[in-house]
Known about the structure:
With 420 residues, the chain is of the alpha/beta class. It is 39% helix and 25% strand.
Amino acid sequence: MSSFRRPAGRREADAETAVSPRGVGLAAGGGALLLVGVGFGSAPLVLIGAAVVAAVLVAAGWIVASSLLTRSRVRGVTREVTPATLTAGTPAQVVTRVAAPGGAARVLRIREQAAAELTGGAGTRASIARRPGGIELRYRLEPTRRGRWLLGPALARAADPFGLAWTDRPVGQALEIAVWPPVVDLAASAGELMGVADRAHAGARTPAADDASLRDYREGDDLRRVHWASSARRGTLLVRSEEQQGRTAATILLALPPVSAGLEWAITAAASVALSVLEAGHPVRLLAGTAEASVHDARGRAAEPARAQILDATVDLAPSESTSEADRLLAASAGRVDAGHRDVVVAVVEPLGPTALHALTPLGESGRAWALVRASLAARARAERTAEALRLGGWRTVVSLEPETLESAWTRLLAEETDA
């Protein structure tokens, strides 16, 4: 087993060479003996001191030559990451293969590097298998943060036989790994949300678009297509049909707060809602600042690519520079919503200023607008004012105070709609 933690600020392409504490001690002792021998005119002390210093210099030369030899021995480095795109909070497996011809694999000492965001701050602990054609390292990643992070390059260590000096030389290239945000499964309630939106828009308790597209369960149907809410109402299993023509679309508006912790909660909430709408069989669009992801068909083989398209759009989202900048970006996103207000709109926001409120309020006139207002306890009053302003415009709104979970806030939001 081996472990390694990447030094902070280290350049990927540079080799690192150092004299070990043992080598430093010997060099210092040898230098002291050399000076004492010269001072007292003692030839034996001079010879001993010179020999010790020379030994350290020879060790440094040894590791430089070994490092160059190691570089010539390594023919390539490949990595296999499973799954290909990671999700924060979900473990992943990595297999790193270092190709080295002949007997080089038996003497090479290879260690792997990984950004702290991929390992939870711990080092990589790899199991190593040596084969005639190279070395294979297997280890586990524990990604903790959404974003793009570096994996590698691997390090080949060379050291002299006496442990007086060593060098780490990067081999191969670093691999950039995308990490998706964690998401919460809200699929069981998304179809109900879209159906209620249709009834609210029609102004009567008529069958929703979801109800019209449901059929009785048949043996062999995929259980993932069961519409549990409607099945519970009717007392029999119902599944969603394949037809998506004319289905209500949803637009998810995501504010980008300047505080990183608030941003991560908001991204998880927006992505979870968007994916649940896809699972319910509806087109969805995610708007976050200047980023946009639109998916119109998530059936069959298109399901996984559609999911990836939504999550990929969240990977590079960054906090706004200020609350005023966050409001400006949210207002711009609101301006891109269908002018006819035909879409269901779900907004994930923090307490808003006048600019954002002025842009969002008219969207509530359609009767298809919901908002989750997330805030700290200290900002509760501002959040309540934001929620009240949106309600006056026709929005269904709840305030979610830290540390309330997304599941709890979402349940309360649906209850708000049902009771409206």
